[in-house]
Design brief:
The longest helix has 12 residues. The chain folds into three domains: 64 residues, RNA-binding S4 domain (Structural Genomics Hypothetical 15.5 Kd Protein In mrcA-pckA Intergenic Region, Chain A); 97 residues, 2-Layer Sandwich (Pseudouridine synthase); 140 residues, Pseudouridine synthase (2-Layer Sandwich), CATH 3.30.2350.10. 33% of the residues are buried. It is globular, with a radius of gyration of 20 Å. With 304 residues, the protein is an alpha+beta fold. Helix 1 crosses helix 2.
Length: 304
């Protein structure tokens, strides 16, 4: 069991309690919080409340999260866009809105559920039963290339390449503002935000090394289309780094403006190119995931 104590700040007043909690703890869904509220595991100022309760300044919220149940992950016949596959690994083009692996807030309909069905359970076990085959992750609303390992041999090999930053990872993004320079590098350590659990931030004292290279592909009246290449792979790295130089990613409601003028589902961020040395053959393998349809349409309608 985990317990947390939160105090509502001025800018957090007037929020539905279930929505507020899902933003503070993004690993859990609103339905998860509604269930805990119904079970009276959430109290405000010492009293149980309902899901439609609106927060007030200086409310004292006590959160009790019970021990997680053992998840039985079921294979699900969910179509996969496979960019490459052999006996050791496969590379999938993850769609927007798909969570990579199950969690308390997302127990099914994840990429792992689809992989268990497609691979008939033949996935590496290094990361346990919740994340079989998963070497690295991309955010729920980020699209694009993700490598999955079918055995521990391949997993160990690719994890080693990730550790020494030898894997090629190039992303496409649309950011707010018009970048003046043609290219640049953000070299700032990233760590957990001290006040907001849902966010990462530039953390000079306790953060881990994070390096992102970027270059301009096209400019619009209010936005810039860029390519980002990762040296490291910290949580939310590109999103945090672009926000830190005052060019947050379009559609990113956590690190950018709260509302998007284009009714987007999350950030316009796509993991396009993924390249590495194949664990079995040692030959360099590189794939490119095509831009999703919504991204292509957006590039056509942005005013110049």
């Amino acid at each position: 069991m985990e317990q947390y104590y939160l105090e509502i700040q001025e800018e957090e007043t007037g929020r539905r309690i279930d929505r507020f909690l899902s933003e503070q703890f993004p690993e859990y869904s609103r339905s998860f919080w509604q269930k805990l509220i119904k079970e009276e595991k959430i109290s405000v100022n010492g009293k149980p409340i309902k899901s439609n309760y609106k927060t007030n300044r200086k409310d004292q919220i006590q959160v009790v999260i019970p021990e997680p149940e053992i998840l039985e992950i079921e294979p699900e016949n969910i179509p996969l866009d496979i960019l490459y596959e052999d006996d050791d690994l496969l590379i999938v083009n993850k769609p927007k809105g798909m969570v990579v692996h199950p969690s308390a807030g997302h127990p099914n309909h994840t990429l792992v559920n689809a992989l268990l069905y497609h691979c008939q359970g033949n996935l590496s076990g290094i990361n346990g039963m919740i994340r079989p085959g998963i070497v690295h992750r991309i955010d729920q609303d980020t699209t694009g290339s993700l490598v999955v390992c079918k055995n521990d041999f391949a997993h160990h090999h690719l994890a080693g390449q990730l550790k020494v930053h030898s894997i090629t990872r190039k992303y496409r993004a649309i950011v707010h503002g018009v970048m003046k320079e043609e290219e640049g590098t953000v070299n700032q350590p990233i760590g957990r935000h001290p006040m907001d659990r849902k966010k990462m931030t530039i953390n000079l004292k306790n953060g881990k090394e994070a390096v992102t290279h970027y270059r301009v592909l096209d400019r619009f009246r209010n936005f810039t289309y860029i390519e980002c290449q990762l040296e490291t792979g910290r949580t939310h790295q590109i999103r945090v780094h672009m926000s830190s130089i005052h060019h947050p990613i379009l559609g990113d409601e956590i690190y950018g403006p709260a509302k998007s003028p284009y009714h987007l589902q999350g950030q316009t961020l796509h993991a396009m190119v993924l390249g590495f040395h194949h664990p079995r053959t040692e030959k360099y393998l590189e794939v490119s995931a095509p831009l999703p349809e919504y991204f292509e349409k957006l590039l056509k309608i942005l005013p110049r």
